[in-house]
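Q: I have 758 residues here and want to know how they pack in 3D. Can you give me a structure?
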Amino acid sequence: MPGSDTRVVELRVHGIMGTTAESLVGAVAAVDVAGDGVGRIVRPADRLLRPGPGPLLRTPDRSIPRVIEGYLWSGMTSGGLSKSTWALMFPFTLANLAHWMLPPVPHDNRPAAAFGLVARSLLRLAALLLTVLFVTQVAVVSLDLLAAQCLAPGAACMSGLVPDWLRELRGFRPVVGLLPALLVVLLLARVSAVTWSVNAPPLPSPVPGNRPRRMPGASLVADPDTPTLRALHTVAGLAVLSLLPSGGVWQRVAGLTLLVLAALGVLLLDDPTGATPHRAGRWLRVALGRVTRRVLLFLSVVLVISTAVSLDPLPNELTGTDVTIEGTTGALIVVCVLFGLVVIPAALLARKEFWAEQPRELRPWAGGWMSPIVLVIAALLGGGFGAGVAITVRKLLGSKGLELPAGYEPVTLLWGASAAFALVIGLLLGSITGVHRWRRNRRGAQPPEASLLHADSPPAEQATATRAWRNARFQRNHLHHVLLACGVALSLGAGVSIWMRLREVGPPEWMGPFSAVGVFALGFLAAALMRAVYQAIRRPDLSRTLGILADLACFWPREAHPVVPPCYALKVIPELTERAAEHLQDRSTRVVITGHSHGSLIAVVAVSRLMETLPPEDRERVGLVTAGSPLQWAYPRAFPSVVPHRALAELHGELDGRWRALCRGTDPLGGAVTTWRRQVYDSKMIGMGFRPDGSSGPLAPARATDSGALVLGSDHWLPDPQLQPVPGLRWSPGVRRHGDYYADPEWDEAVAIAAGLM
């Protein structure tokens, strides 16, 4: 029971698209009270910028003092030159994301463990080939297109800018060609070495007696193999530079040897979160220690320098370009196909163990086979972006005599055919959707929740709420279908292009427009991305456009691909957990961690860590509130091994009713969290959901609160638009969708329940 000195600390975590410190804590001014400037903990402040308490938390018995704090992490994903250029590595980020979308491995199932290990190894190999392809495409532009062809003595290209005597100067053309590619490789190595320093001590070991089963986000740990993977990717990037010019025999042999060593290394490195580190990976970690990695990097740099020296004068035609581009692309295609085939039995075995008994709307996307789709999109984006840059540069140079690798023609055909196919599918789906919505609007049917929440509202407001509910529900239900359609469209286009290339068949006349569309699409893709990066650097306020992608993708630690932006979750979650534990040292304090949107995932993982490491008497003073959360329709379905449905149910049981979820049916990014299969029966909303004991099943009918919300299980369904203004709270007219959860009158009641005060 709460005593007279009880207080509540509400620790808020924001979601994607960032926020300000003032809006996070709901005050006109805010001030830092902890953190290192990168991860900031803020509180409301008075006119003299002194930290102040939050508004009293009203309960049926009395008002409880409340302290509001907010954790700001948006500075890790947006702002500045370095963070803006991370957008150029988006294919690498997608490949790394594919690792976290793999199906879970059942316990004590050797076939499933073997399939999982092979899938992770193939994914790391595909990631290495993506790096090699990226470096090769950079070298095609700088070494082949610019240095070898455009700057050739007597060439008309850039004749007014570069005189012939400079073109014939010893070492000029090899340096111009190899230096940009070498700098790109070193830049990738530098980016992959950046990490966020954690301003918190290591988490303590789980308390004996706590449930031994895995909680949500248990696998979100730093991979000790990341330095080795980074070195292998750097070695592979440097080695491929020696193959493009086709220099001496020993240089080709040395380059191929380094590439093979890098490929074997990424294949054999085992995953510490899934495989057993003391088996196959133990000797490999010793063999690829710090000294070995430095020797390999030194040999790779020497190889590139020797290639530049031996290529003086640089030939006007580089014979190794086509072979390297097509060989890398072919190997990447084969690995992607093998990866997709291996994930099929892995997903089937996981289905039998984890989600065969779950309702259809809770099962993973594509039956747990979403990871190959994401990898294919990453591979085709990587290849398409490189071809787009080369096509754009050739147009800027303005010379018709410049030749690109023959493999780029199928790429243009691929993107043209894919764009046309996607347009047809989009028009078809749009027409079906329009007809479906028209029929629903004509019948006037309302979603069951909306019909109860707005039963007494004016007809115009009911119609507004109904349209917003339908639109949001459509987006939540079909977002993964868009990703699947993109993957299928690109895969079909790739299949046609590969078949034509293998048969050495040129595109027929009727496919000429597709190639033209592909050239335009690739050039537009490269120009648009470059412009977005430039605008984000020039105007920091626009960097949030790129930051949205970074918020979602950079949450995940480096696993499959090391050349991705640093994972902010490895910093935010320990610091958030430490801050909560610090407040809990005061026995009269109750801590409620709240998360909005993507921040709800951070909050859930932080609370699960607290449930594992705190003694029972302290766990009873921890609560959780999620608002606008995609923790049901998105994260468990896209990442079934990280936040599985079963783990969320277990965490709900650990909290014993102190997890409250604020939901709006009009929110396209958030929805139900702890309930499903809702329906209206006898003017009451019923459904299935999590129970306080950690099980799932039918729930008691929903109850109505004073603010007009419906509480079914732990979900608080909020009327949107809000029914009426509430004294003392900010009024938000109209449909609020994904925002203004803190201003809703139901917020304080959810916090009070999560704190164990109601």
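Q: Anything worth noting?
A: DSSP finds 23 helices and 15 strands in the chain. Residues 88 and 656 are 45 Å apart (CA to CA).
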